[in-house]
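Researcher: Next sequence.
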Amino acid sequence: MAKNIFVGEIIKNEEIRPDYFLMKVRLPHSFDHPRPGQFVMIRIAGLAEPFLGRPISIYSYHLRKSSGEIELLYRVVGKGTQILAGLISGSQVEVHGPLGGSYSLSPEKENIVLIAGGIGVAPLSLLAQYLCKNTSAATSRLSFYLGAQTAKEIVGLDKLSKLCYKMKICTDDGSRGRKLLVTEAFQEDILKYDPADTAVYACGPRGMIKALAGILSPGKFFCQVSLEERMACGTGACMGCAVAVKGGSGDVVYKRVCSDGPVFNLEDIVWE
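Model: Next structure:
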């Protein structure tokens, strides 16, 4: 087996909301402890089609005596994820990872703000778990803003409600929480957060991240975002997930979301 590719066994694979699944996979003890923001490429072991794995953010990780367990929260959006959704307990999968970079932790900040859109809740949940377990960041310092199109697409509350002191839920149609964009909910509260003592972490659709860039003044808030881009290889070989960012000399360069990201400083992303 190639480096960082492991054969895992599915413990459960449940549909928790229409088209949203939670998969738990048992992996060898040698699987590296994932850092918040990292992902895996997953495919059915021994299956020729689809050949390429599907990138899924790591939702949680637990180290057992003789193995490790990862949880993957994913949405069915195409053929590959539809195949994954049909797997049952005991099925074997190939897991390549953990891949990509991670969020830079700022546990010393008085306020830690997490902003998620839809399935973007997954890497931020791992971040919240990591901060509460491995740093001095208390639950009372974590605020979570969670948005989705409808109430049926709100996932991850079971973990987050135990980790975050303040949660605000928004839906586009008002079927749960407030009827407004999640970035608008954060903008309403922004004066409550001292830029010098606040760290903002986000993950969601490109439109949400772009809106957040328009709200935060460059250089004032520390803000890192995990970008959601289509990936083919997951290792940077194909250049299929390149995005424009600011280079060191102010020029525009292209970085690969899979290998150079998926986490970037918000102020470095070029939108035009």
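Model: The mean pLDDT is 89. The first strand starts at residue 5 and ends at 17.
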